[in-house]
Every structure is written in C-alpha cells, then in structure tokens.
C-alpha cells in the first residue's frame, strides 16, 4: 500500500444569484461528507463536458455540481468556490466535511461546488488496492504491474484529467450558471487549481484564498521527505520543551530513532481488532508503514497531540496503537482520494519538472521516509501517461487580484516559505501564518471569520487578525485518557 499511500496527497443556489433560466438545471438535493454524516441542503446538477476538449468526438463526462445557497435572501452575485486538495479529493465531500468553517462565508454568498473531473461524483478515476500485495513491500516491477492494471480498470483515458483541463470545466460552469465572477478558496493541491484558473480567467476571478500553498514553480516530490522530517523534529522538540510532555517522555527523540532502527531491520507483526467486526487482523508493520503513519499524523494539531504517546508506546514494544492509527488514517485517505486522477496530475505536472541533479539525496536518505517517495513516483510515472499541460502552469501567478495566503508553521508538506514563493508576482497579497498549525488553516480558530472578512471587502490589507493569537492548539496526550489539562 505504501508505494501509493505515501504519495497521497502530495500534499478539500439562491435564485437571485443566477439567471432566471440557467443553462444548467439544478434540483433540490442533500450532500454529505460520506455515509453516516449529516446531510446538507443544496441544489444539484450535472455539467456535461468533453473528455478531450480538442476532440468533440471523444465522448462526454458528467461532472457533479452542487450549490449551497447563501443565508442572505439577497446574496452577493459572486459565489465562494472551494477547491479540494489531494490531488484526487472531491470538492463536495471536502466542503461537507468542513461546512461549519464556511458558514461565515455563506452569510452573503452561495457556495459553488464542482467535483473536479476524475474525483468524487465526477467520473471518479480510481482503482482498488490489493491489500494482499500492496502492503508496503512493492518492488519496482510489482509497482509497474499494479500501475498498468490500474490503468486498465479506469473508465476513461487517463490523460484528460489534468489541472489545465479542469480549470476550463470550472469556467464553463460559471458561464452556465451566470455568475459574473468567482471567489476561489483552494486548499493544498486546490491552490494550484485556483492559481491557474486566475491565470487563465483573470476577469472571472474576484478573490483568491490559498490555504496550504503549492507554488507553481515547485514540483511536489523531492522535498516531501525533508519537509516531513523537519515537521517530526519540530514536534518532538516541542514535546521536550513542554514541561508536562518533556517529563512524561524525556527521551522521545531517542524513542523515535529506536523504532526507526528496529523497523528498518525487520517489520513487527501486529494484530488489531477490526472496528466493524471485532475480529483480529494481523499484518506486518515496517518502516514504510511507520513513514506513512508519522507523515499523515503530522498534518493536523489534533493528531500531532497523540504522536509522542504513540512513539513512546512503540519504543516500549507496543506497536498496536501506532499501527491502528496508521490503518485508520490510510483507509480514510484511500476512500477520499481518487488514485487515477492523482497519478495523472503528478505524472503530468510534477515529475516532468523535477531536476534530479538538484536533489540532495544524502539529505533524503537521512529522513525517516528516505527516497521511497520519489522512487515510487518515478516508477508509477514510467507507466502512467502524461496529459495536456499549459506551458505556463509552472510559472508564478502575476496578478493584482486580491489574494490571501494561509500557512501553518508546522505544516509537513507545504511550509510557509512555499506561500512566499507563490507570492513573488502577487501585487495585492497578504500572508498569514498560524502558530503550531499544520496543513490547512480554514477551520483553525477564528480563521473562518478572517477569510469571510477578506472575501467581503476583497482587500487583505486591513484585516483584523489579532484573534489568531488565541487559536487553540491541543495539548500533548500524556496517556490514552486524553490530552494534558
């Protein structure tokens, strides 16, 4: 599983706001974050788009659309458009999972949702994992075989699911519903989509919110391992500097080194009860599983809070809690992200722009992930076809459109310096950094209100951001009963 899991993510209608007879018909519906989650009232429809825009005979795709109406009966004419991360996440599910964070925005504006082609309800491009084979032990040949088998299972030609084509879909949706312009809110990979839409359609873009910024000029892949290592080092040092955590886990950095060394020598066998059936399931937990578990847990402050405890337990011989977190996190990620669309994006837009002569392989080898991420990407993309990519996709966006950039100083995948790189040609931008925050700020503390204030005035210069100083960061868990008081 890890050959693919560690790659994911290379990091989520009011009648008055549309014409009286829109080109796209919408009907009452309910959307949700998945089975078991509450439904949200919306208006849903289907946008028909050509598979290959350059070939009218290539067939049509049915793209899932939803509009969550503004609370105001006389909303502003320009909606907010959440763009999901991954790549491979669907916007509808992403919005539903974080709907509360969008409520300040929804006071005066519709929420316009389009599952990007190949994700969610838009002709999802995916293939199942074979858990008996994909268990972190893939060699290059097995990876190529799995990738080729995945391609054969996909419902459409994998080439036509790139960012360059997806932004044209979004513009077609805007025109179909008659919106004069859009307020784009991209998270992680969604920031790449937002920037490229603004490049292609500047007159249709009113504001940009870029959360967990992917700079156009930086291909994802080479720095994932080093940024992940920086993040875990910072987490462990923060634990040692914290009186309670440091006293409870006085050698947590050595504990992490110990389990890394142990699992590099040989995996451990772990038995975990299935959460649905209660039956025990055994599997090998090795260095690849450790890498995925630590990297994914480092994304959010809530999961960061339990990491020292999980590492300490594993160092004492109890790998079950860490392995259980690995299985839970990886399972939810695999359900949320479409592997086929993900591969098309990274193999078309990232790998071709990687200059291996500039990579510090010694630094990669010193990390807990190592070069595994980059090697897996190269092997997958040796089989996966490349799709159409606009020539300027990797060029920093140059615009005077109002832009709000959001970063977490503990982000293990898109650090604050990435936002600074993206901002080199942004003439009307402001960068906000959350202290001890991870990947994605839209739901952190008072950020929903700050973002709503920015979109309301289309100006970041006078935003009141003092409330960020009080953003809650969950204390470290000292035992499994919960965080420290």
Summarize the structure.
The chain has 485 residues and is α/β, with parallel strands linked by helices. Helices cover 38% and strands 15% of the residues.
The percentage of residues in β strands lies in 15-25%
Largest sheet: 5 strands, parallel
Classify the helix fraction into a percent range. Answer: 25-40%
CATH architecture of the domain at 12-219 and 391-470: 3-Layer(aba) Sandwich
Question: Which fold name corresponds to the CATH topology of the domain at 12-219 and 391-470?
Answer: Rossmann fold
Given as residue ranges, the uncertain stretches (5+ residues, pLDDT < 50) are 1-8, 12-22, 131-136
Overall mean confidence score, pLDDT:
91
Secondary-structure topology with pairs:
Elements lengths: L1 H4 L21 E5 L8 E11 L9 E9 L11 E4 L7 H7 L1 H8 L4 E4 L25 H14 L9 H15 L4 E6 L1 H12 L4 E7 L12 H18 L1 H6 L3 H14 L2 E6 L6 E6 L1 H11 L3 H4 L2 H9 L4 H17 L2 H11 L11 H5 L6 H10 L21 E6 L7 H7 L6 E6 L12 H11 L19 E3 L2 E2 L2
Parallel strand pairs: 4-6, 6-7, 7-10, 10-11
Antiparallel strand pairs: 1-2, 2-3, 3-5, 8-9, 12-13
């Amino acid at each position: 599983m890890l050959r693919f899991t560690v790659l994911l993510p290379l990091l989520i209608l009011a009648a008055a706001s549309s014409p009286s007879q829109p080109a796209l018909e919408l009907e009452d519906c309910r959307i949700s974050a998945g089975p078991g989650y509450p439904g949200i009232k919306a208006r849903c429809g289907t946008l028909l788009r050509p598979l290959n825009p350059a070939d009218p005979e290539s067939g049509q795709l049915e793209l899932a659309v939803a509009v969550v109406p503004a609370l105001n009966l006389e909303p502003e004419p320009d909606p907010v458009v959440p763009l999901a991360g991954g790549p491979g996440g669907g916007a509808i599910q992403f919005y539903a999972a974080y709907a509360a964070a969008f409520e300040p925005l929804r006071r005066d504006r519709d929420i316009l949702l389009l599952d990007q082609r190949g994700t969610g309800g838009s002709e999802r491009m995916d293939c199942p994992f074979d858990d008996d084979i994909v268990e972190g032990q893939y060699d290059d040949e097995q990876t190529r075989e799995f990738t080729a088998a995945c391609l054969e299972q996909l419902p459409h030609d994998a080439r036509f699911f790139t960012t360059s084509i997806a932004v044209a879909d979004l513009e077609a949706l805007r025109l179909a519903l008659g919106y004069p312009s859009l307020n784009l809110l991209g998270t992680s990979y969604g920031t790449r989509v937002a920037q490229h839409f603004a490049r292609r359609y500047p007159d249709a873009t009113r504001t940009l919110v870029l959360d967990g910024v992917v700079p156009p000029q930086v291909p994802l892949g080479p720095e994932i391992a080093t940024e992940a290592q920086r993040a875990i080092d910072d987490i462990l040092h923060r634990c040692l500097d914290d009186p309670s955590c440091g006293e409870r886990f006085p050698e947590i950095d050595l504990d992490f080194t110990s389990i890394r060394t142990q699992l590099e020598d040989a995996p451990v066998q772990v038995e975990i009860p299935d959460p649905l059936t209660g039956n025990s399931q055994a599997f090998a937990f090795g260095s690849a599983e450790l890498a995925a578990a630590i990297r994914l847990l480092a994304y959010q402050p809530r999961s960061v809070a339990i990491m020292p405890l999980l590492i300490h337990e594993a160092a004492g011989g109890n790998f079950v809690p860490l392995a259980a977190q690995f299985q839970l996190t990886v399972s939810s990620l695999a359900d949320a992200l479409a592997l086929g669309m993900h591969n098309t994006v990274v193999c078309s837009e990232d790998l071709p722009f990687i200059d291996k002569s500039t990579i510090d392989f010694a630094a990669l080898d010193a990390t807990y992930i190592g070069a595994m991420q980059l090697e897996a990407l190269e092997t997958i993309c040796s089989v996966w076809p490349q799709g159409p990519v606009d020539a300027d996709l990797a060029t920093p966006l140059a615009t005077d459109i109002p832009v709000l950039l959001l970063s977490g100083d503990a982000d293990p995948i898109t650090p604050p310096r990435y936002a600074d790189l993206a901002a080199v040609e942004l003439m009307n931008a402001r960068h906000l950094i959350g202290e001890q925050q991870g990947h994605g700020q839209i739901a952190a503390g008072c950020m929903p209100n700050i973002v709503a204030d920015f979109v309301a005035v289309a100006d970041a210069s006078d935003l009141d951001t003092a409330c960020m100083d009080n953003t809650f960061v969950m204390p470290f868990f000292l035992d499994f009963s919960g965080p420290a008081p």
